Amino acid sequence: MLITQVVVLAVVIYYVAVYAGTLLSDFRADDLRGREGWLVLSGFLYLACYGLQAWHSQLVCRTVDPSTPSRTWFSFFAAQPYKYLPSSLFTFSFRAKYAHDMGMPVKASSKAQIIEYTNLIISALALGGIIFLFNHSRPLGITLLFVLAAAGAAALVLRKTVRIPKLAALSTHREAGLLALSATGWTVAGLAFWASLVAVQAEVAVSEAVALNSLAFAISILAVFAPGGLGVREALFAANGIATPAVVLWRLVTVAVDAVAGAAAIAAVSLSKKR
47, 196, 218, 235: which has the highest count of C-beta atoms within 10 A? Predict the structure, then answer.
């Protein structure tokens, strides 16, 4: 089993290195000269987004299994590099593997991931949809915002428990909080995307950047056989007039954070197992 894990990790490192090299070959440093601070800000904001998503992941795990150890959030970061393999199933399975190393049963972790990804997709589509409609049809945007706000208020007030067969019993007020946390994470990710656009002097409104990035990530999660959403996000960005240098730079930021944060988390999981 250990040999298999080492081989898979080696393949991941190879794919990430090749992918990063391809991106760098398409990027011109002159596009960034004098605006490196925006690139650094983009990286920190994207890492902050991951922190919020890892917190969301930990809370979902506690919903499924209240005895989940507090350190299980490491598994969220540790699994990120595996998204660059040719299927999201690698990310899913290695999340379960690293969560198990942290003390969470594989079955419970798998259930938690289903709920987590559902929350991520719903919140990203809702956030992106509201902003998109506001920018293109304010009455429709206000209507959607009112509907979602009313649904959230009802969930908080009613405090009902909904049992999802073979998954978990979810309280409506807790789920509303989880969706809000997830949407906050996507907002921070959108700000990171906007900062990377500013770094290459791409003129895009903050709200549009948040909406585009949220929708792009939601669609890329659904595209389970696209490594890291490769081609999916780029197609959406290009269709909305985002120039190639900006798209490439944003990819470089996300790959760098995935690689660095993932490597640190894998090391943390390994050290934790030895204690």
Answer: 196
